[in-house]
Design brief:
It is a single chain. By secondary structure, the chain is α+β, with helices and mostly antiparallel strands. The protein has one domain. The chain is 65% helix and 14% strand. The protein is built from seven helices and three strands. The model has no long low-confidence stretch (mean pLDDT 86).
Length: 180
């Protein structure tokens, strides 16, 4: 079991390093563009609001163009704090492919990435009403620092769901026979 745990640690370290290298070589901008696309789809029926992505001081930033107080304006929001937790999710999903049957790992990856993406799209959509509603501003500010916690929640959920904690402590249960 110790050997299995060391292999898992090595997988996490290598996957994280590779994802970080890709992240800082443009994957962050690509992911920001996908969030922009999702937000603009959600804002499809709002004729006076749209979201764009620009690189500001070397990091992606969401640029919201909307009407505030009857006047058209735009404002930026740096995206680096909300984008980086995706590395945690992707690293975890890669690790699951080494510890679960392919079908379970694929289903879990699809669900977790979709859940996380939808929450982040909601966050970007909330940015479009930041100056128009104190409730939206409160929810937006609450979510701003919560993406690492949300990612951690998804990881812990899977660890309990697939009994990965017990497996790591020495249980000899064959997880590959377990099905959903």
């Amino acid at each position: 079991m110790k050997q299995n745990m060391l292999i898992n640690i090595l997988i996490v370290v290598v996957a994280s390093m590779l994802l970080l290298i890709l992240w800082f070589r443009g994957l962050d901008l690509f992911y920001a563009q996908t969030l922009k696309l999702g937000a603009n789809i959600a804002l499809l029926f709002s004729s006076d609001t749209s979201v764009a992505v620009k690189v500001v001081e070397g990091t992606p930033a969401f640029i919201v163009e909307t009407v505030v107080g009857g006047r058209k304006g735009s404002y930026p929001q740096k995206a680096n704090l909300i984008l980086l937790p995706v590395i945690m999710i992707l690293t975890w999903q890669i690790l699951l492919f080494f510890n679960l049957p392919f079908r379970q790992a694929f289903r879990t990856a699809w669900q977790n990435i979709l859940i996380f993406y939808i929450i982040q799209v909601i966050y970007v959509v909330l940015l479009s009403s930041y100056y128009n509603s104190s409730t939206v501003k409160y929810i937006y500010d609450l979510l701003m620092d919560s993406f690492y916690i949300i990612a951690l929640f998804l990881i812990v959920k899977d660890a309990f769901r697939y009994d990965l904690f017990r497996r790591a402590k020495g249980s000899h249960a064959n997880l590959h026979q377990k099905t959903d």
